[in-house]
């Protein structure tokens, strides 16, 4: 598929860079013009991404909209792009959230606006490129492209008190994992070349390489470490609370909404298919770490006095569910895992938006500094309540569908895992409702809160699309599952074939009924 004669995936990757180039020629003394131009480019990017959803063939598991050209032919490096049901929805999530992030930065970012918007557009290029790249070198390039803009967003436009510390910590953690992944990519390339005589970094071709189990363990560990840091899984999560807390609101939204998903996406796109035997044998270890993350993240969230840190630690818990469902290696678990990636992007992204909106008014995020806000900000309270209920998985919202399928998949894989994961749901409801009650209800004890203004038209415009998606995903999940069914079935079939598992795949009809 092409738009304006340009293949659609390449257009989605490089259109934000075109926007960044246009911004270079706008006077930095005109921040209003810079904001409008950036918003226009991000809106057009989102519109360009919509045909992917409507033209996507749900009946096939093959990669679609494929672009394949040689990049460095002598070394087997190609410019190969494609999407399937696993990456499709994440691409749409990226373009959707970017528009809202530009809008929420409208008044929050007041200095170096030009550089900020350019950084955000480059970040969008890196995120989309990583989601559609099918060549390992190309994926690694886009993986690194994401790192610099996010480092700048935290280090330049973050909270003045600890932004440098948070930015460097984020950079070092991510870079350490990236180096190991690069080494593993090169080792995999040479091993495959030695075994087949073919020089290629094409992930779809490398899926076919039957590496010995011992080799798979080491290479899987390198890939898994890079992705586990990005998720982040326990115990590699320590960079996340600082990064979230110090980042500007839009940085927190895009970090939670998309960047963390690069880790979970990396597992399902590369680590597991490339090294299936290692992934299967290490399933108990990953599942236990995911369970620790679920419970630990929830317990630590209960103790947080800061709204942003509470939401940040809740991400550790929510993404623990994603990893648990993924490593259940059954239809319900993996589809629930992918759905929960989307849910987390919408629900947690909305929470960061809501926290950012009240922070702009009060310049504090301490829960103790609030109380009784529903009396002076009733519209804000309604949105806050909807997003809170979505985050705890109330039936009818997006969070329920993903958590239910993950728990179903976990119970099928191991009853103990399912029981422990279910306890995290209760803990999640406890800390989220506790936070909401402390902020919204009770008496107004701080004089500064008595004259707070309710949400303005721009802020309502930002939150309404999020609420629509929350209910759409909760009430009509088939719209989204229909896009991923074939791809997930093929993923499980290929995986089980490689590890010689005896369990049968559930039929599509059974899976649909259970959804």
Question: What would the keywords be for this entry?
Answer:
4 strands; two-stranded antiparallel ribbon; disordered C terminus; 515 residues; globular; 21 helices; two-stranded antiparallel sheet; mainly alpha
Structure description:
- The protein is mainly alpha-helical.
- The chain has a domain at 285-515.
- 74% of the residues lie in helices and 4% in strands.
- It has helices at 8-24, 31-55, 85-104, 113-132, 136-157, 163-196, 203-206, 213-230, 239-246, 249-274, 276-281, 283-302, 307-326, 331-362, 373-376, 378-392, 398-413, 415-440, 457-475, 478-499, 508-514, and strands spanning 2-3, 6-7, 64-72, 77-83.
- The protein has a two-stranded antiparallel ribbon.
- Helix 5 runs antiparallel to helix 6.
- 53% of the residues are buried.
Provide a short characterization of the protein structure.
The protein is mainly alpha-helical. It is built from 21 helices and four strands. The strands form two sheets. It has a two-stranded antiparallel sheet. A two-stranded antiparallel sheet has the order 3-4.
Strand residue percentage: under 5%
Shape: globular
The counted number of beta strands is 4
Helix- and strand-based class? mainly alpha
| Cα separation of the termini | 31 Å
What is the typical, i.e. mean, pLDDT? 89
How many helices? The count is: 21
Query: Into which percent range does the helicity of residues fall?
Result: over 70%
The largest β sheet comes out as: 2 strands, antiparallel
Estimated radius of gyration: 22 Å
Poorly predicted sequence stretches spanning 5 or more consecutive residues: 501-515
- In the sheet with the most strands, the strands line up as 1-2
What's the helix-strand series? EEHHEEHHHHHHHHHHHHHHHHHHH
């Amino acid at each position: 598929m092409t738009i304006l004669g340009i293949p659609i995936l390449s257009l989605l990757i490089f259109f934000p860079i075109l926007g960044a180039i246009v911004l270079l020629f706008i006077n930095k003394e005109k921040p209003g013009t810079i904001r409008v131009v950036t918003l226009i480019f991000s809106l057009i990017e989102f519109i360009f991404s919509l045909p992917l959803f409507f033209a996507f063939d749900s009946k096939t598991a093959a990669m679609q909209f494929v672009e394949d050209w040689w990049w460095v032919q002598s070394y087997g490096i190609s410019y190969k792009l494609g999407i399937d049901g696993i990456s499709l929805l994440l691409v749409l999530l990226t373009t959707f959230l970017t528009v809202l992030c530009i809008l929420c930065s409208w008044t929050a970012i007041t200095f170096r606006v030009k550089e900020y918007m350019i950084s955000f557009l480059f970040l969008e290029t890196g995120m989309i490129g990583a989601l559609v790249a099918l060549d390992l070198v190309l994926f690694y390039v886009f993986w690194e492209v994401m790192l610099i803009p996010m480092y700048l967003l935290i280090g330049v436009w973050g909270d003045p008190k600890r932004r440098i510390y948070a930015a460097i910590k984020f950079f070092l953690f991510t870079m350490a994992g990236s180096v190991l992944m690069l080494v593993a990519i090169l080792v995999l390339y040479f091993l495959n070349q030695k075994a087949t005589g073919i020089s290629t970094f094409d992930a779809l071709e490398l899926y076919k390489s039957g590496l010995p189990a011992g080799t798979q363990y080491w290479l899987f560990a390198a890939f898994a470490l890079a992705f586990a840091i990005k998720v982040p899984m326990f115990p590699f999560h320590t960079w996340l609370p600082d990064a979230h807390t110090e980042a500007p609101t839009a940085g927190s939204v895009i970090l939670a909404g998309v960047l963390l998903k690069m880790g979970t996406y990396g597992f399902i796109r590369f680590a597991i298919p490339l090294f299936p035997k290692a992934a299967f044998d290490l399933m108990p270890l990953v599942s236990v770490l995911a369970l620790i993350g679920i419970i630990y993240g929830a317990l630590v969230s209960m103790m947080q006095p800061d709204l942003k840190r509470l939401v940040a630690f809740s991400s550790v818990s929510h993404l623990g569910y994603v990893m648990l469902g993924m490593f259940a290696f059954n239809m319900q678990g993996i589809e629930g895992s992918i759905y929960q990636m989307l849910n987390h992007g919408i629900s947690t992204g909305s929470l960061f938006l809501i926290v950012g909106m009240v922070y702009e008014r009060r310049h504090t995020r301490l829960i103790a500094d609030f109380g009784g806000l529903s009396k002076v900000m009733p519209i804000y309270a309604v949105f806050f309540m909807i997003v809170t209920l979505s985050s705890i998985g109330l039936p009818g919202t997006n969070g329920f569908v993903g958590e239910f399928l993950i728990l179903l998949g976990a119970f099928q894989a191991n009853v103990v895992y399912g029981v422990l994961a279910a306890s995290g749901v209760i803990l999640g409801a406890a800390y989220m409702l506790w936070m909401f009650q402390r902020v919204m209800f009770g008496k107004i004890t701080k004089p500064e809160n008595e004259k707070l203004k309710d949400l303005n038209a721009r802020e309502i415009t930002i939150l309404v699309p999020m609420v629509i998606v929350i209910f759409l995903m909760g009430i009509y999940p088939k719209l989204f599952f229909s896009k991923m069914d074939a791809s997930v079935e093929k993923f499980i079939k290929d995986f089980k074939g490689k590890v010689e598992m005896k369990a049968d795949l559930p039929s599509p009809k059974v899976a649909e009924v259970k959804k």
